[in-house]
């Protein structure tokens, strides 16, 4: 059994390195590609900002519907893997198309971009929901879930920060080789897609799900989907709390390259800064199981939030000196690493709570709320970033010298003040409304076993 859990831990986690490289490229740098690489005019950017916001909200709302399809899937390969495979292949195709410069501009570019982006979003949704909703079926033990989730988050962060650290030097090198930054981003997208497909293959062929543990259930209807979401109070509160956190987290990270180019004045320092933060966040996830043995989740969340608050305040008032900015960044990302993993565990535990309360398990509908949350956070963050770079004058600036003091203040408020308020609001909702602690979770499993809904060994 131990070797099986280790196998799942590693093959599940390794699969998301390339996934998160790809997601980082699109969620964090698509706007930069549009503004600074394609150099689109403000009139087009306003339309693109609106299109991105509307498309992400529309697709996010459809995520639970995708969860219904996955929950109702019954194939020889299980209900998760077919969606993971198909989603990975299609996502790769549309990612490359998104970073292909067809020479179109104006209305024709907006139409093509909208179609490609919507197809990318739907494809990634199928893969993302299939991937993360498989996690609860790998173990019913809270601590083992934490280990699987921690390693998966470490791999996800390796992928994310590989792009964050490498995007500037790698694209600049590719730009010199191909004589164009548009071609550089095109080639860069192909490289990332290939890495993503390799990692997903490791998960598809390596992961072994629990067999014969869960009671067979009837298909979930659209009405049943709404019941899962709105009648599971712990799921609903968790979703709101995570959404607020992700809005703050994604908004801050999306401003990173703009900050170092137009506020700090040295774009090359962005990669060094990101490397330090990436190592800090991965280290935090690596030691999480050790802290989890000593402290309960409520104390871990409180401590992590304190780190985040101190980091944001220090960052906002820091002079343009890497000693202060770097320290602030480390504090923020140490805390956020813990919070991200804790929230994934909160979400996973609401599956058994929902089965206990409502009589059905619904892994995929429940976990579909994670990409829903990520997309809503990304949509709102894109709207904040898009509006900020235009209003502050950054979209028309060539360097730090072209941005006014007022413009820099607008950038810092959007990057630091607004996100911190969102993160604090999410923590407050958790403390007031979330109640699935270790004792309650054990009771839920005991009740489910007594009812015959799950079959666990004593």
Topology (SSEs and partners):
Layout: H1 2-14, H2 16-37, H3 42-71, H4 81-98, H5 107-133, H6 142-178, H7 181-206, H8 222-231, H9 233-254, H10 256-263, H11 269-294, H12 297-317, H13 322-358, H14 363-367, H15 369-391, H16 405-433, H17 438-451
Helix pairs in contact: 1-6, 1-7, 2-6, 2-7, 3-5, 3-15, 4-5, 4-7, 6-7, 6-11, 6-13, 9-13, 9-15, 9-16, 10-16, 11-13, 12-13, 12-16, 13-17, 15-16
Description:
The chain has about 450 residues and is mostly helical. The protein is built from 17 helices and no strands. The chain has helices spanning about 1-15, 15-35, 40-70, 80-100, 105-135, 140-180, 180-205, 220-230, 235-255, 255-265, 270-295, 295-315, 320-360, 365, 370-390, 405-435, 440-450.
Give a quick precis of the structure.
This protein is mainly α and 458 residues long. It has helices spanning 2-14, 16-37, 42-71, 81-98, 107-133, 142-178, 181-206, 222-231, 233-254, 256-263, 269-294, 297-317, 322-358, 363-367, 369-391, 405-433, 438-451.
Shape: globular
Averaged pLDDT: 86
Task: Count every beta strand, where a strand is a DSSP E run of 2 or more residues.
Answer: 0
Number of distinct helices: 17
Largest sheet: none
Fraction in helix: over 70%
Q: Output the radius of gyration.
A: 22 Å
